[in-house]
């Protein structure tokens, strides 16, 4: 152990805080920690398989028109309530030739558990088919509407087998049978992230090997992140037994957990290897790494979790639970980085670079000692000052190795022309954000899925035979329980007349009356597909104008319900609450950066630049998916709207993740500034020592996110591309152009703190300079 490991230059032993003691203890007791993690991993996985819950996209939206209408219909006419799905039939000859098989299949469906009703699409023998009914004009396509009393995903693993058995006579006769709606989703292949994980891991291995030059050093972050994510997914499964999570929740949790897990481990391991090269023993090096970079990991992870928790502001349980799902793996990733990784580093000891593919290098060219073990701290409070702090008269000299590395030279160029670099970065992100104003939020329909999915084939059959709007019928409900019996016929006539010739509607079925006579209901078929803007407009026109006008002057209440109407209501909720969520997340992130660095200008800069980078990533999504610039190349059929909850989810995730690099970079700038008092030199030094590792970390995270583009789920493709682009922009344009330029322009004023604020803010010591 070198003398600098035990005393500072003043001769006083450094005070070692909780993080140092945690890292050192894990490094000294590696077997205990590793075995403990393995026990936890096996325990949560076994518990998940025994009592873990399932994932489903069926969520209620209390207080919305669609949910209220569904409740009214279920209460007065249960047979037409519940969850509906279609069994689509097609053959090259009239389906009436298969009357016996159709009748047998419908009867079998009616007798299945959880089935409220199943409508036979064929008319009784001897009768002509009803125009506009479930049998196409050529008689070659029909659909059976099956209504269930609950969420199909909760009916058991063998329920789809029972449905298959019910329609088996049709398939045996050569009739094509496809499932639409929730039944089609149930029949989709079991989603697997294995391919995406393998691609992400493969790229990560290559990047880490190039970055570290050591096989062992490249493997440690991957092992740590993978174990942490598997534990997190097990915990998520246990939470799913208590509440309902969306089907995308485990994929999203995997995506975020792997990305941040590898990032956190990479930053810690980089500092640890530098400590080893500086002569520290492995246990002390691990403790020092956890006390310094580990503190930034803890702050960064907290920021990500808080940003995800900001989704709860939406008041939409679907969104809040997606944030919770991602937050679970972020927490386990932080725990893995702070405990499991130090244990693995202690276990490896000085054998870190035993197997190399190139000569290992230090943390950055010209890296010099930046610990309070070696130098006294420049900790002069800058109060009400705006001058560039470039003098170092009150600073104990630090050892300065010869500088001149690529990143150091680059930082000096930025220092000479900061406005050029700042404007160049701003122009780049603004160009990428050009498509953003034309963003169209909506729901991605089954027509965008691959043709290997039965719901996509059902969608195509329905569109060809009955029009695209047949895939998203709207149910109109009129509660006339408060209307006098004598006035009900006139009310029914007025409603039927109002629904005739509505723009963007392909047709309306005759009004029906519930068994108790209190409710009128009918089906309106849109002229366009469920995801089209015209269908969204139709829902609003019916609910806001057509139906209220039809029942004006009566105590009747009207509703537009059904799956498509519920999706429109969800879209309206998300759109109305997106700005409050943005405001809350930005405010929380601003507060965290302010608490960590005690510098309001730094916090403001971080918030503004992160907003700019997120706007650019939104623009890319609009261009690729909504405008169709590359969507087909990604396996997306046609142009699709931006899934309603993707921008909100992306904002919380990206804003949290972008704070990762912000905290890591600013921690090194602040650390250096406190050691030397040279604000501009601190920016150059921080870039020089962190640019390589930040670039590696960003490339890995981009690869992990981009690997999910191969998913068959269009929403996952959208999330994967959006997150990958966001990280890429943040780690290049923002972190390499705009941040150093802005920091250079701010100079010493960047760290200015008003006296009143200085008295109020706690000193969190983000770099661990006082407690390591």
TrEMBL record:
Its main location: membrane. It is a multi-pass membrane protein. It comes from the Bacteria. SUPFAM superfamilies: Multidrug efflux transporter AcrB transmembrane domain. Residues 222-347 form the SSD domain. The keyword Transmembrane helix applies. It is found in: Cell membrane. Keywords: Cell membrane, Membrane, Transmembrane, Transmembrane helix. The chain crosses the membrane at residues 198-218, 225-246, 252-270, 296-318, 324-348, 419-439, 578-597, 609-629, 649-669, 690-711, 723-752. Residues 117-136 are annotated as: Disordered. The keyword Transmembrane helix applies. PANTHER family: MEMBRANE PROTEIN MJ1562-RELATED, MEMBRANE PROTEIN YDFJ. This is MMPL family transporter.
């Amino acid at each position: 152990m070198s003398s600098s490991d035990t005393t500072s230059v003043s001769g006083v032993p450094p005070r070692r805080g909780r993080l140092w003691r945690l890292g050192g203890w894990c490094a000294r007791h590696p077997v205990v920690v590793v075995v403990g993690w393995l026990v936890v991993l096996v325990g949560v996985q076994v518990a998940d398989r025994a009592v873990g819950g399932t994932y489903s996209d069926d969520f209620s939206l209390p207080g919305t028109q669609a949910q209220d209408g569904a409740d009214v219909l279920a209460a007065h006419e249960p047979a037409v309530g519940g969850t509906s799905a279609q069994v689509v039939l097609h053959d090259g000859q009239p389906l009436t030739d298969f009357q016996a098989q159709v009748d047998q299949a419908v009867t079998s469906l009616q007798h299945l558990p959880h089935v409220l009703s199943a409508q036979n699409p064929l008319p009784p023998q001897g009768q002509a088919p009803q125009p506009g009914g479930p049998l196409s004009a050529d008689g070659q396509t029909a659909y059976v509407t099956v209504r269930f009393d609950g969420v199909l995903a909760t009916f058991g693993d063998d329920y789809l087998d029972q449905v298959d058995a019910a329609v088996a006579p049709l398939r045996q006769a050569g009739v094509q049978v496809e499932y639409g709606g929730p039944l089609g989703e149930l029949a989709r292949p079991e989603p697997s992230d294995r391919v995406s994980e393998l691609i992400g891991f493969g790229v990560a291995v290559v990047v880490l090997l190039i970055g570290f030059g050591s096989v062992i050093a490249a493997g440690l972050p991957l092992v740590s992140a993978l174990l942490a994510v598997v534990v997190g997914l097990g915990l998520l499964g246990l939470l799913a037994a208590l509440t309902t999570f969306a089907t995308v929740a485990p994929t999203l949790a995997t995506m975020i957990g792997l990305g941040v897990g590898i990032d956190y481990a990479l930053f810690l391991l980089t500092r640890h290897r530098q400590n080893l090269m500086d002569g520290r023993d492995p246990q002390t090096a691990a403790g020092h790494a956890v006390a310094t970079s580990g503190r930034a990991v803890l702050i960064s992870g907290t920021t990500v979790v808080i940003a995800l928790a900001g989704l709860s502001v939406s008041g939409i349980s679907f969104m809040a639970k997606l944030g919770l799902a991602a937050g679970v793996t972020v927490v386990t990733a932080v725990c893995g980085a702070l405990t499991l990784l130090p244990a693995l580093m202690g276990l490896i000891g000085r054998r870190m670079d035993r197997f190399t593919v190139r000569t290992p290098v230090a943390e950055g060219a010209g890296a010099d000692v930046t610990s309070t073990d070696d130098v006294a701290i420049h900790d002069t409070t800058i109060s009400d000052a705006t001058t560039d702090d470039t003098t170092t008269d009150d600073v104990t000299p630090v050892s300065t190795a010869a500088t001149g590395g690529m990143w150091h030279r680059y930082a000096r160029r930025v220092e000479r022309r900061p406005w050029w670099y700042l404007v160049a970065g701003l122009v780049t992100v603004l160009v990428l954000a050009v498509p953003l104003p034309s963003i169209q939020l909506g729901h991605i329909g089954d027509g965008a899925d691959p043709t290997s999915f039965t719901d996509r084939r059902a969608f195509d059959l329905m569109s060809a035979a009955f029009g695209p709007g047949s895939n998203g019928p709207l149910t109109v409900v009129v509660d006339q329980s408060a209307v006098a019996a004598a006035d009900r016929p006139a009310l029914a006539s007025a409603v039927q007349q109002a629904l005739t010739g509505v723009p963007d509607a392909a047709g309306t079925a005759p009004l029906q009356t519930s068994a108790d006579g209190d409710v009128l209901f009918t089906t309106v078929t849109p002229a366009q597909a469920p995801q089209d803007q015209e269908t969204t407009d139709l829902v609003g026109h019916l609910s806001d104008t057509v139906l209220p006008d039809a029942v004006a002057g009566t105590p009747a209440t009207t509703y537009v319900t059904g799956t498509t109407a519920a999706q429109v209501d969800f879209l309206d909720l998300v759109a109305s609450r997106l700005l409050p969520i943005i405001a809350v997340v930005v405010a929380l992130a601003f507060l965290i950066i302010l608490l960590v660095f005690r510098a309001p200008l730094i916090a403001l800069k971080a918030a503004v630049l992160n907003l700019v980078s997120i706007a650019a990533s939104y623009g890319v999504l609009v261009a690729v998916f909504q405008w169709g610039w590359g969507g087909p190349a990604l396996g997306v059929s046609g142009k699709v709207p931006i899934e309603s909850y993707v921008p909100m989810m992306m904002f919380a995730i990206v804003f949290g993740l972008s704070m990762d690099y912000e905290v890591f970079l600013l921690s090194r700038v602040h650390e250096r500034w406190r050691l030397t008092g040279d604000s501009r030199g601190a920016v150059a030094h921080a870039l020089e020592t962190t640019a390589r590792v930040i670039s590696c970390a960003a490339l890995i995270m981009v690869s992990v996110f981009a690997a999910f583009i191969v998913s068959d789920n269009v929403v996952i493709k959208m999330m994967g591309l959006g997150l990958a682009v966001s990280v890429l922009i943040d780690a290049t344009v923002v972190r390499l152009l705009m941040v150093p330029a802005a920091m250079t322009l701010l100079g010493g004023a960047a760290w200015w703190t008003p006296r009143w604020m200085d008295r109020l803010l706690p000193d969190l010591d983000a770099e661990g300079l006082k407690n390591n």
